[in-house]
Each structure stands twice: as structure tokens, then as C-alpha cells.
């Protein structure tokens, strides 16, 4: 790392100005630039606010650069494994004791989900990374905001400790994002309970830098964040069928049943297993009623017929269809296309819609043309009918003249 002693220099000195220029180049190259804005590391913004690059330069010159911000992790500088040495205060000791060339072997199922005895350790290690403020800073408020450099670092750390032919980066990123959001949710609960910053830092089991706490609390106090929190709380309250598996995934539960020598359980059977306690009790009345309906439907299955996953299987008929992109009782990482006919994506639907609109417009044009032709034929028929009537009148006049002449001749 280059010399950053310029941060302590006088703000109008040549060293300081050149240092600011170096920092700005680094930030533009390595961090997320949103609408021409970067996180401002001045004493006033404290890396919590985004400023236009020119305004960030003015702030750093006017208010000064954060004195202790010598490792620019908010701007894409990674914490190297050799520097960090651990995954936060609650680091995974058993993974640390491994040598550099030693790795845990992770087994995955056909859907890419971890199973076996190392699956829990695998997820736990990802959770430790999600709670490490140096690996996944809390100054970014959405997973999309988090720069790719941090995500790449998470994947590299995972590969250092675990290996397996089916371990996929997509599953690791989804798991990490989920656990990071859960961690932020827990910190929100801690803040609601203690309110004061000092109290939050005292009662938090993970050491989080004060500047990250301040940035996080500032975000919690925004109207948008409060509204989203209330919306999430309401959605959670609407959950009808909570499971009781704890940290054990549905994938591990299925794998254990297969290892016992039984066929892979159906979706309905997994639903019952994950919603019933050891004493056979359900968590709420809705779950009990659903399980009763499932048992009734399963008892009516013909002998030898399996309740394979399908949009019309027993579980779907009882609790309703799967949410878009999800498959009930299979957990994260499983796509509906692996079981059902693949539903078209939104872009494909838009293309189909455009084609149908074009065909509909074409049909409308043809109908208009037919109607116009029909109207023209009607006009021609009306004109012909008028001529026939005129001829008939002339014929009648002529007949009358002939009759008159014959009468006068007689």
C-alpha cells in the first residue's frame, strides 16, 4: 500500500492536494460510481453520503479527509486474508486451524445445494463473512450497491476454505446476500431496543466500526427505510405456514431421508415434516388444517403412484401455487424449470406481447379493409338499384304511352 501520510498534512499543501487526486482516481477505478457520485470521505460526510466527484474534492479540501481512514475499504480496497486473519470476533475457529492447502470438502445435491456433514459449516462460514464489517461493509444499504470487488473477495475466501465439484458461485452469492440482509435486520432490532449509538456498540457481539454504525443508523432513520421495514414486518406477519427446521436446510433434510434408505420425500411429505414438532403439534391452526388436507389427499393416491413435483401436485392444491421463481419445500437455488415446464421470462413475455399486438393491429387493418370494401359494394348496389328504379319508371311511362296510342287508334 502506498504512503498515505498526506492525510495528516495541511489541507492546502501540495502533498495533500496530490494525495486527494490519487484517492479520487482510486475511488473512480475501484468503487461504485452512482450517477457521477462517490462516497465522500470528508470529516462532514463520514463516508455515509454520496457526493458528485467535484463536490467530494471540495469537501475533502474544505473539511479534511477522515484521519483514521487509511484503508479505503468503502472505495473498493480489499482486506487481504493475510491482513485480516479472522472473520470478525466470532470467526470460524475450525476453518482457521486449517493449513493454507487444506480445505473442507463440500457435497452438493443435483440442484447445487450443500448437503452432508460439512453443509452447516459451509453456511456458517458464509454467515461469518456476512457479519464481518470489513468484508461486507454496512455502509452499503442494498446488495446491488455493494461493489463487485467485495463479492469477488467473498467468493475467493470461500474457495480458500472449501472445495467441491458442484459448489457454485451463484449459490454462495445468494446465501451471502440473504445472511447479510438478516444481519442488517438484527442490527435494526438492536437499534430499536437501545436507541443510543454507544449502547448499540456495547451490546453488539460483533465489533462494528463507529463510522459504519453511524451510517447504518442514519439510514435506519430515513423515511424510505422505515416504510420498507414496516412493509417487511407486515409481510412477515402474513406468513401462514412457518417451518421449524431451524438452521437445517430442506436439502439436508431430504438427503438425510434418502441416506436412511427411503425414497426421496415428496413436497407434501417435506411440508408435513418441517411443520410438525416431535410431539406431532403444529405451530398454528392454518398449518394444522393444511396438513389434514394433505394427509387426506395422500391417502387417496392409488397404490404405486408418486406425488411428483408439479403445478397440480397435492401441496399446490392445498396451499396454492408456487411464487414466481420459487419451488415450495426445496429452498434457495432451485428453479421451477427444473421440475415444471419453464415459464417464459418477462422479456420473452414482452416480445410475445409485441408480436401479438402487431398481429392484432394487422387483423384490425384487414377488418377495416373488408368493411371499406363492403361499404363500397353497398354503395354500388344502391346506385344500381336506383338506376333499375329509374329504368322501371321509364318502362312504365312507355307502356302507358303505348296503351294510350292503342286506345286512341281504336
Report on this structure:
The model is unreliable at 80-93 (pLDDT under 50). The longest helix is centred in the last third of the chain and has 64 residues, at 346-409. 55% of the residues lie in helices and 3% in strands. The chain is mainly α. The chain has 4 domains: 5-75, no CATH class; 81-237, no CATH class; 266-338, no CATH class; 346-410. Strands 1-2 form a two-stranded antiparallel sheet. Strands 3-6 form a two-stranded parallel sheet. The chain has helices spanning 14-30, 53-63, 81-84, 93-96, 119-130, 148-161, 169-194, 197-203, 210-220, 223-237, 250-259, 267-275, 285-299, 314-319, 346-409, and strands spanning 37-39, 50-52, 104-105, 107-108, 114-115, 162-163. The protein contains 15 helices and 6 strands.
In short:
The protein has 410 residues and is mainly alpha-helical. It is 55% helix and 3% strand.
The biggest sheet amounts to:
2 strands, antiparallel
Strand order of the largest sheet: 1-2
Number of domains: 4
Assembly context of the chains: single chain
Observed structural traits:
410 residues; mainly alpha; 15 helices; flat
Task: Describe the secondary structure blueprint for this structure.
Blueprint: H1 14-30, E1 37-39, E2 50-52, H2 53-63, H3 81-84, H4 93-96, E3 104-105, E4 107-108, E5 114-115, H5 119-130, H6 148-161, E6 162-163, H7 169-194, H8 197-203, H9 210-220, H10 223-237, H11 250-259, H12 267-275, H13 285-299, H14 314-319, H15 346-409
Parallel strand pairs: 3-6
Antiparallel strand pairs: 1-2, 4-5
Helix pairs in contact: 1-2, 5-7, 6-7, 7-8, 12-13
Amino acid at each position: 500500500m502506498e504512503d498515505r501520510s498526506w492525510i495528516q498534512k495541511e489541507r492546502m499543501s501540495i502533498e495533500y492536494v496530490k494525495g486527494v487526486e490519487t484517492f479520487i482516481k482510486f475511488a473512480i477505478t475501484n468503487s461504485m460510481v452512482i450517477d457521477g457520485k462517490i462516497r465522500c470521505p470528508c470529516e462532514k460526510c463520514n463516508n455515509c453520503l454520496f457526493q458528485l466527484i467535484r463536490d467530494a474534492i471540495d469537501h475533502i479540501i474544505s473539511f479534511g479527509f477522515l484521519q483514521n481512514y487509511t484503508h479505503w475499504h468503502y472505495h473498493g480496497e480489499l482486506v487481504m486474508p493475510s491482513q485480516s486473519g479472522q472473520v470478525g470476533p466470532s470467526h470460524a475457529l475450525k476453518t482457521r486451524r486449517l493449513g493454507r492447502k487444506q480445505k473442507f470438502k463440500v457435497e452438493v445435491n443435483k440442484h447445487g445445494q450443500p448437503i452432508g456433514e460439512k453443509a452447516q459449516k459451509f453456511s456458517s462460514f458464509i454467515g461469518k463473512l456476512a457479519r464481518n464489517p470489513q468484508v461486507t461493509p454496512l455502509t452499503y444499504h442494498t446488495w446491488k450497491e455493494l461493489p463487485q470487488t467485495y463479492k469477488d473477495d467473498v467468493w475467493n475466501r470461500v474457495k480458500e476454505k472449501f472445495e467441491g465439484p458442484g459448489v457454485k458461485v451463484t449459490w454462495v452469492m445468494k446465501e451471502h446476500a440473504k445472511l447479510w440482509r438478516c444481519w442488517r435486520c438484527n442490527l435494526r432490532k438492536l437499534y430499536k431496543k437501545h436507541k443510543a449509538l454507544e449502547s448499540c456498540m456495547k451490546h453488539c457481539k460483533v465489533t462494528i466500526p463507529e463510522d459504519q454504525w453511524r451510517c447504518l443508523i442514519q439510514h435506519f432513520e430515513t423515511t424510505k427505510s422505515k416504510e420498507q421495514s414496516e412493509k417487511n414486518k407486515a409481510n412477515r406477519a402474513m406468513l401462514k405456514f412457518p417451518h421449524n427446521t431451524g438452521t437445517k436446510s430442506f436439502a439436508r433434510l431430504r438427503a438425510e431421508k434418502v441416506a436412511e434408505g427411503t425414497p426421496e420425500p415428496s413436497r407434501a411429505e417435506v411440508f408435513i415434516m418441517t411443520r410438525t414438532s416431535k410431539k406431532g403439534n403444529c405451530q398454528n391452526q392454518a398449518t394444522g388444517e393444511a396438513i389434514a388436507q394433505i394427509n387426506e389427499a395422500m391417502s387417496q393416491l392409488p397404490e404405486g403412484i408418486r406425488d411428483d413435483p408439479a403445478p397440480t401436485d397435492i401441496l399446490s392444491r392445498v396451499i396454492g401455487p408456487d411464487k414466481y421463481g420459487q419451488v415450495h419445500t426445496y429452498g434457495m437455488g432451485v428453479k421451477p424449470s427444473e421440475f415444471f415446464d419453464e415459464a417464459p421470462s418477462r422479456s420473452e413475455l414482452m416480445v410475445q406481447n409485441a408480436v401479438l399486438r402487431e398481429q392484432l393491429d394487422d387483423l384490425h387493418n384487414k377488418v377495416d379493409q373488408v368493411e371499406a370494401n363492403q361499404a363500397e359494394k353497398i354503395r354500388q348496389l344502391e346506385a344500381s338499384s336506383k338506376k333499375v328504379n329509374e329504368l322501371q319508371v321509364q318502362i312504365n311511362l312507355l307502356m302507358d304511352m303505348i296503351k294510350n296510342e292503342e286506345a286512341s287508334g281504336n
